[in-house]
Amino acid sequence: MRTALSTGARKAAGRTRLSPLLRLLIVTQLAFNLGFYAVLPFLAAHLGQAMGMAGWLVGLVLGLRTFSQQGLFVVGGALADRYGIRPVVLAGCALRIAGFVWLGHAERTWAVICAVVLIGFAAALFSPAVESEVARQAVVWEEAGGGPRTRVLALFTVAGQAGAFVGPLLGALLLAVDFRTACLAGAGVFVLVLAGHARLLPQRIPGRDRTPVRGGLRMVLRNRPFLGLCCAFGAYLLAYNQLYLALPAEVERVTGSQTALAWLFALSSLLVVTAQLPVTRWVGERLAMRRSMASGLLLVAVGFATVAAARPAGWSGTAGLVPAAGFVVLLTLGQMLVVPVARAWVPDLAEEGRLGLYTGALSSVSGLIVLVGSSATGMLLDAGLPPTVPWLALAGATGAAAVLLPRRA
């Protein structure tokens, strides 16, 4: 892969506009996250406080939602390859609407479980379909002289992050009425998405042929370069998951509460929204995919090491938050390098006609790594070891994952 764009290519990139399909899919990602994050961040409190569920049951419900989404991405991707993205996206939107409406009216445990599984499975349908088509269209855009495909994937990431940032704010306003109102508003967003896609999404997209499902998973399991990418991406996702596991424990330790977490999350979102595109443009002109992703993983590893190095000093209060803030900044910078490149790399490693399957498999395999790795991290945090050990272990695992990246572009 080229590591630098010529002056002519940069000029062409400035003139080349995204296709209507790409613009639709990028706006779709924003709308997906807007509707999702208007509801789901408040689900645990609703189940525990309003419905009186025990903590273990709340955890089970949330875990089932994650499994029905991440774990089944590979199914949604395979269906997108077989039937095209239009029917899969429309079906996913319809199921998400039904799930949110059901969740808003659910008053029994079984109804809540069914609703959240439906919500998760809906995303397992539409997300890999949309993500795989964005990746494919990004390659088309690159080959037409628009510039590195990572720029398109970076814009896709920014749109999703913007939706994730605004969604909870919308949900918090709606919760002033009640949780059902927030659910119905989330459903309303997906009604608009469904209507827009029914009208604007093409029946058939040129260059995307329908591929039988049979035999695809066997190809994935034999594709060692792709599995290496999955493992490296899974290591990044495990690191990102520490925003919800190791970081809250650290903030609680240094401040006595978790109030500062909201500010650290806002810092991460703000960095992605404002800096993702400039960072991707700068890196795309200088680094190949492997070097870019490896650099991102090493930045994240340095973030973990920063907290580990500061622990012996025993800082507390505002000063104690400085290493945590440094970790968030380095993790977010690493995310800017890793996520667009991982998505952009999949088309180069996927078998012909199976981009949806491979896009889904990237999420499913890496999600399984996060599931196992998060359990191990929790054990380290609770094992009574010296406080630097869990952070150093995470730094080592993240940095070592760079070795697993494919050698070829």
Automatic annotation (TrEMBL):
<feature type="transmembrane region" description="Helical">
    <location>
        <begin position="46"/>
        <end position="64"/>
    </location>
</feature>
<keyword id="KW-0812">Transmembrane</keyword>
<dbReference type="InterPro" id="IPR011701">
    <property type="entry name" value="MFS"/>
</dbReference>
<feature type="transmembrane region" description="Helical">
    <location>
        <begin position="110"/>
        <end position="131"/>
    </location>
</feature>
<feature type="transmembrane region" description="Helical">
    <location>
        <begin position="388"/>
        <end position="405"/>
    </location>
</feature>
<keyword id="KW-0813">Transport</keyword>
<feature type="transmembrane region" description="Helical">
    <location>
        <begin position="221"/>
        <end position="240"/>
    </location>
</feature>
<feature type="transmembrane region" description="Helical">
    <location>
        <begin position="21"/>
        <end position="40"/>
    </location>
</feature>
<dbReference type="InterPro" id="IPR036259">
    <property type="entry name" value="MFS_trans_sf"/>
</dbReference>
<feature type="domain" description="Major facilitator superfamily (MFS) profile">
    <location>
        <begin position="21"/>
        <end position="409"/>
    </location>
</feature>
<keyword id="KW-1133">Transmembrane helix</keyword>
<feature type="transmembrane region" description="Helical">
    <location>
        <begin position="292"/>
        <end position="310"/>
    </location>
</feature>
<feature type="transmembrane region" description="Helical">
    <location>
        <begin position="355"/>
        <end position="376"/>
    </location>
</feature>
<dbReference type="InterPro" id="IPR050171">
    <property type="entry name" value="MFS_Transporters"/>
</dbReference>
<dbReference type="InterPro" id="IPR020846">
    <property type="entry name" value="MFS_dom"/>
</dbReference>
<keyword id="KW-1003">Cell membrane</keyword>
<keyword id="KW-0472">Membrane</keyword>
<feature type="transmembrane region" description="Helical">
    <location>
        <begin position="152"/>
        <end position="173"/>
    </location>
</feature>
<protein>
    <submittedName>
        <fullName>MFS transporter</fullName>
    </submittedName>
</protein>
<feature type="transmembrane region" description="Helical">
    <location>
        <begin position="179"/>
        <end position="200"/>
    </location>
</feature>
<feature type="transmembrane region" description="Helical">
    <location>
        <begin position="85"/>
        <end position="104"/>
    </location>
</feature>
<dbReference type="Pfam" id="PF07690">
    <property type="entry name" value="MFS_1"/>
</dbReference>
<feature type="transmembrane region" description="Helical">
    <location>
        <begin position="322"/>
        <end position="343"/>
    </location>
</feature>
<feature type="transmembrane region" description="Helical">
    <location>
        <begin position="260"/>
        <end position="280"/>
    </location>
</feature>
